Amino acid sequence: MMVHALLGQHNSHLHQLENLLGVRLGSRGNDIQISGAKLDVELTELVLNQLVALLQKGYPLYPPDIDYAVNILRSHSSINLTDIFFDTVLVSARNKYIAPKSLAQKEYIDAIRQNDVAFGVGPAGTGKTYLAMALAVAAWQKKQVNRIVLVRPAVEAGEKLGFLPGDIAEKVNPYLQPLYDALFDMVERSKGQEMIEEGIVEVAPLAFMRGRTLNDSFIILDEAQNTTREQMKMFLTRLGFGSKAVVTGDVTQIDLPSGRPSGLLDALRILDGLDGIAIRRFSQIDVVRHPIVQRIVQAYEKA
Predict the structure, then answer these.
(1) Which phi and psi (to 5°) does residue 268 adopt?
(2) CA–CA gap between residue 245 and residue 132 (Å, rounded)
(3) Pairing between strand 90-91 and 97-98?
């Protein structure tokens, strides 16, 4: 049964590994034959052994996991995949196990757990906001915090807010929708709506944070590259007793008006090395969305 799980339906996992690693693989019974260049064969053996270890511990192996495993072990051959893939942050309402899929994600999760303020900086698709949301929901479930505050700057990315219909709340709602989407992936939609109505979860534009002090809260500032220096300082000084803040952003996607410096870039420079603050950076190899997203990110970085 475990051999079948390793091979995949119609040997699909073996074909996937062949494409990823540049080797030829064949199977007979419980044996797998590998042919190719010496270094490629050694990496393939390492990947297969670690995948077997995951399966032995009951890990359900899916095609994306094989991509993640190869990416991790190609860069860090001494890593034990069970230490990463079994660090479950949250089990969602759909019984989905949310855990890191790269070494950078594992380090990011540990940084959030161990520090009062953590920055996650990198391209789209690296799980910065999603994992922060999972940790926030987990902290609330464990009664470590009383509420979750989700914040985004309402910056116009080539479009004008004034042309959107409705009052100010309705105008900024599209900017906050990705945070709602992440929340509703963690908990049932009805439960999420109930948490919002009861004030357990607050989703708000950054401008609404001025003058507040947030105690016993897990606060996430998303799209932080679009904050000004003043806004970033204002946000970071909202942190009260028993609270934790996570700041996420992609410094290649700044939509501020020309000439206005990003508050995220400013904070990364000023706060680097400060006790209680962690900065973790992601790269295109940490993209865990559809494989085409990683290729798109790579193409734009080259351009």
Answers:
(1) -60, -35
(2) 9
(3) antiparallel
